[in-house]
Amino acid sequence: MGSRLRCDLRKIVEILLRHYGFRPSPEEFLAIKAIKEGVHPFGILVSIILTQNTSDRNALKALENLKARLGRELDPRSFRKLRLEELAELIKPSGMYYVKARTIINMLKEFRDEDLDALSTVDPSFLRERLLRVKGLGPKTVDVFLLTYRGYPTFPIDTHIRRVLRRLGCVDPSEKYEVIRDKVIKTLPSELLLPAHIILITHGRQVCRARHPQCSKCPLRDLCPKNML
Questions:
Q1: Crossing angle for the helix pair 139-148 and 41-50, nearest 10 degrees?
Q2: Of 98, 94, 100, 104, the residue nearest 55 (C-alpha)
Q3: What is the mean pLDDT of residues 177-185?
Q4: Please, what is the Cα angle at 185 between 203 and 229, to 5 degrees?
Q5: How many Cβ atoms sit within 10 Å of the Cβ of residue 119?
Q6: Which of 5, 82, 166, 192 is paired with 175 by a 20 to 30 Å CA distance?
Q7: pTM
Q8: pLDDT tens, 74-93?
């Protein structure tokens, strides 16, 4: 298996950035919203957990419930006063709420009060390993946090990104998360990783949809193998 993507990803990203512009909506990218609002790093990570397997719109409702109950900063100390059932009820709009509530509680166990600065200060490569040990935290969630909050050169891959890259012939359908992540990191300069993440998601949501893709409107149609047949 090659160590590089089978497409010119930089060209693809640049075309998409020209087409859509780089103005990510905070309501559509909850981690960015949380960072802009000065939420505690723990709360930023919680906001990303809430987006798992749901829309950011539903996750936002859950996040606002938490802020109303715990305060705007979402300091981890405030979460400690919640029982599992109450936490699950607050985040119910995001779906899979008991699974997500247990993940948040697992994070509280991993990061005790005396260790709360770790999310901001620990070396990101070590922090990635540590976060991946927390039951319920997957690599995409961890990488979104590290890329958006810590500015660490990593690349989160969600279903939209995987679909777009597969349709463009950049990756094989069977390639694992870490393989694709590694290839993208080797392909793009670090300053393009966050724009690439956001713009590929935007393209997957608006044009390269799972069902009924809008191929006639696609700015990448001249690069897409489907249109070269």
A1: 140
A2: 94
A3: 97
A4: 50
A5: 22
A6: 192
A7: 0.94
A8: 999 999 999 999 999 999 99
